[in-house]
Amino acid sequence: MSSTIAAAFARDPAQETLALLDSAAALAEAPLPRIAEILRTALAPYVRCSALVIFTEDCTGRPQKKAGAEAVISRVTLDELDLIRSSLPDLAPRWSDERIAGASRPVLAARSATNALLVLTDPLAVADPPGASGALDPDTGAVLARLWHLAAVRIRDKVAEATPSYLRESRAVSAERSRLTAELTDAHSTTLETVLAALRSARQSDGAARRAAIDIAAAALVRLRASADRTASLLEEPVVTAFERLRADLRPLERFSGISLQFVEPPVDGRALPGEVAHAARAIVRALVLAMVEQDEVHRIRIQWGCDGTNLLVDIRDDGQGRLSLAEDGLRRIEQRVQALDGRLRLEVLEGWGADVFVSLPLDPPSSRAPKGPGAEWELGEREEEVLRLLAGGLRNRAIAAELGLSENTVKFHLRNLFRKLGVSSRAEAVARAAQAHAGQR
């Protein structure tokens, strides 16, 4: 046993082992909002610190998890954390002086295999003599690395599960974060642009000073815009990238189950997905595919994603016997995830021919969505209303797709939903129902 660990516990190895197992169990069960606090407590017998900060891009709503001194956790920025992470050559914990929370401080930093970052500010190995710092003995470093690995994996897996409670909290935080970021960006941009306009004025006589000030202000604008872009990249994921990650997740299932998975990719120019929607969509599709695989006589599953600018549209179809049911516990839990994001799930089964599951996930939080139009009585989405309007104008699927910048498959997806919501079975009936509703509003 190392001198640090012996001094930290001052007890026999069995007690130390039990304490480590208790810490590991606490981390394995930790809720995301408390994981930084629990990790800091678990590390306290080995390394004390003024604050502990976790930076993870898995959590789009709250990429920072923090515990400790308010002077640190209230001022640390994503740019500071990203610079520290980019300076780490490998996964080994490193002791150094870094700028964090607006000041230079000693920190102990480590990356995880999931590319998350752990930072301990003002670290002190428990067995170090007063005034000593800057190194960890191998055993203490190994304990820190393993506890940090557990925490990082817990964060990744908790996000991948995409439980309803996590999704609701993440969506609310993302919406508020986006609003505040936009306000700050606009305010600072306006200020700096005003400074630039004043300094460029012909009334200024000191050209050299004016040029220097312009350079400084222009550089500040670039930094501000880059920071805003970085925040947006943390909060969003391109739809094609999200779909490719889904394919990677499902490849082992295809390899070992013998079931053919057919993927219909979303359009490359589709709107980026909010992080919680991307995580939720992958979790929902994985769960639905597993539910389909568990049925007898399923040989092929088709997975299609579309994006209409307002919603992520998911269509999953199997060739089984058509025995899936929303009354099953597994599908009920999936439906709860969808509802947590204010989305909709619909299941169509045809006995002997298979099941077809349609999922629609809004890309905007409820508070920022536009009010419903004339189709509100049928609970039509914005895109569905547009498709109905063009349908009433006599356009065919290809022309509707061209008009709205969608694929024909996405138009067909909307038409199926329209027919269901309007209670009709043909294009002519849908147009007639829309005409009746319009006449009734006049």
Automatic annotation (TrEMBL):
PROSITE patterns: HTH_LUXR_1, HTH_LUXR_2. Signal peptide: none annotated. GO terms for biological process: regulation of DNA-templated transcription. SUPFAM superfamilies: ATPase domain of HSP90 chaperone/DNA topoisomerase II/histidine kinase, C-terminal effector domain of the bipartite response regulators. GO terms for molecular function: DNA binding. Gene3D superfamilies: Histidine kinase-like ATPase, C-terminal domain, Winged helix-like DNA-binding domain superfamily/Winged helix DNA-binding domain. Residues 374-438 form the HTH luxR-type domain. This is LuxR family transcriptional regulator.
